[in-house]
Design brief:
The chain has about 150 residues and is α+β, with helices and mostly antiparallel strands. The protein is built from four helices and seven strands, in the order αββββααβαββ.
Length: about 150
């Protein structure tokens, strides 16, 4: 399976974004590309034997005040004949989120949120150390990392 990011032409990055991009390279197994439109955003892709996990990170999130916002995460089967149920619940997403949390802490990004958490994903985020953000204006259903 080829790297789908190889034909991507990234936008010009600020010096701080270049630093973040370079440090993200330390996350084992990640293929990384800067976000297309949003400043301080990056897409990470992890390809395993059975599934591909994509995680989108946004740094310095204004709405939540987070250092790192996990704005989207998907776990999809690699093989066409596989059903979603065959690849989900196998622990791949948890391993990757734990890598991202560890990297965030090691790089001084302690305030981590998962944004727009859907009902079907609440157990996943809870078992990975996140809790619903009780702030009054939490209209995007953010969950804070509590560790």
């Amino acid at each position: 399976m080829g790297n789908s990011f190889e034909n991507f032409k990234p936008r010009e990055l600020s010096e701080k974004e270049k630093e973040i991009f370079a440090s993200l390279q330390a996350i084992e197994g990640a293929e990384i590309t800067p976000g297309i439109r949003e400043v301080y955003s990056f897409a990470l892709r992890f390809v395993g034997k059975e599934s591909m996990v994509s995680v989108y990170l946004s740094f310095f999130d204004e709405q939540s005040g987070a250092d790192v916002a996990i704005t989207n995460m998907t776990n999809m089967p690699i093989h066409k004949e596989q059903a979603l149920e065959e690849v989900r619940g196998q622990g791949e997403g948890t391993k990757i989120i734990q890598r991202i949390i560890l990297w965030s802490k090691e790089n001084g990004y302690g305030h981590i949120v998962a944004t727009q958490v859907q009902e079907s994903a609440k157990n996943f985020w809870a078992k990975n150390g996140f809790a619903y953000d009780e702030r009054e204006n939490n209209s995007s259903d953010d969950w804070l990392y509590k560790g």
